[in-house]
Design goal:
The chain is mostly helical and 67 residues long. Helix content is 57%, strand content 6%. Strands 1-2 form a two-stranded antiparallel ribbon. The longest helix has 11 residues. It is globular, with a radius of gyration of 11 Å.
């Protein structure tokens, strides 16, 4: 699943570690989500949307999900 997390994080000047701290996850989790190696759980997706003050649909592109 494609996402805009790296773009949104960089636009705010946050490191992966800073975003991870805000979300209560590891920096490795943020990296895995950004690179598409890990799709977040629904609660984590809501947390990500909340941190960026956007809807989940504005961050994640489910049409790019592997079938």
């Amino acid at each position: 699943m494609n996402n805009r997390i790296r773009e949104l994080r960089s636009g705010r000047g946050w490191s992966q570690a800073e975003l991870a701290e805000r979300l209560g996850v590891s920096r490795q989790t943020v990296n895995a989500i950004e690179t598409g190696r890990y799709d977040p759980s629904l609660p984590l997706a809501f947390s990500i949307a909340g941190v960026f003050e956007l809807s989940i649909e504005e961050i994640f592109d489910p049409s790019a999900a592997v079938q």
